[in-house]
Design a protein that fits this description.
single chain; alpha+beta; OB fold (Dihydrolipoamide Acetyltransferase, E2P); DNA polymerase, domain 1; 5-stranded mixed barrel; 10 helices
């Protein structure tokens, strides 16, 4: 089974990446070849920002059923772990779990399940009342154990630094931000930028006259990349 892919992004359509792995064939090296993997990914802002022609790392879940062989990819092992947790629920398949992760940030989803917020869960396309009830019933304990173990967080924290009290405090502040700022922060952290630096800049940005809650997430991200793209 394929569990991880590092390669060049050949195509990036909404919810789908074509990843090229291996050297491309050329006249000077006719034996060289590139294999393209078609990978389904969440339809969220941080994936939409992955640029064609760049290298990326994806943690892969390989789904095999009868004659179906599908790859589902995630930019972090934590997001893949949450995906695997979701598909353990009866009635939620890989496509359904991907749709949930497309509609909600991982930290928000974890918070909803732990707080038993079924009303918010049913607002996600594909989740009915019974599915929301099963999610809360079946996932509260395993997700709480993973939060306690530092695998999941109710606030997004960068991998390798979950134990930092400073980062936990920053994540708590960030959860009170307007939605565009929260989504921009999560997207930039997912792309590998330093979360504390991003939080500091976004906090300053929100205090300026140029920010308003009606801004699109993509616009906030572009502003951050203009300021930090070459220095972080």
């Amino acid at each position: 089974m394929i569990g991880f892919i590092r390669g060049k992004i050949l195509e990036n359509a909404e919810g789908r990446l074509l990843i090229g792995v291996g050297a491309g064939a050329s006249q000077s090296d006719p034996s060289g070849g590139m294999v393209g993997y078609d990978v389904s990914v969440p339809s969220s802002a941080n994936y939409a920002l992955l640029a064609t022609g760049t290298l990326t790392d994806l943690f892969i879940h390989t789904h095999v059923r009868e004659d179906v062989f599908s790859l589902f990819g995630f930019t972090s092992s934590t997001e893949k772990e949450l995906f695997m947790t979701l598909i353990s629920v009866n009635g939620i398949g890989p496509k359904g779990a991907l749709g949930i992760l497309s509609a909600m940030e991982s930290s928000d989803l974890v918070s909803c399940i732990l707080s038993g917020d079924k009303d918010r869960l049913v607002k996600v396309p594909g989740i009915g009342k019974k599915t929301a009830e099963r999610m809360v019933l079946e996932l509260t304990d395993p997700i709480q154990k993973k939060v306690d173990a530092g695998i999941f967080s109710t606030g997004t924290v960068s991998p390798g630094a979950r134990g930092s009290a400073l980062q936990k405090s920053a994540a708590k502040i960030a959860r009170n931000w307007p939605k565009p700022a929260i989504e921009a922060r999560d997207a930039l952290v997912g792309l590998g930028y330093k979360d504390l630096e991003i939080e500091k800049w976004l906090q300053e940005f929100m205090e300026e006259d140029g920010f308003h809650e009606a801004m699109k997430t993509e616009d906030v991200i572009r502003q951050a990349l203009r300021k930090y793209g070459k220095s972080i």
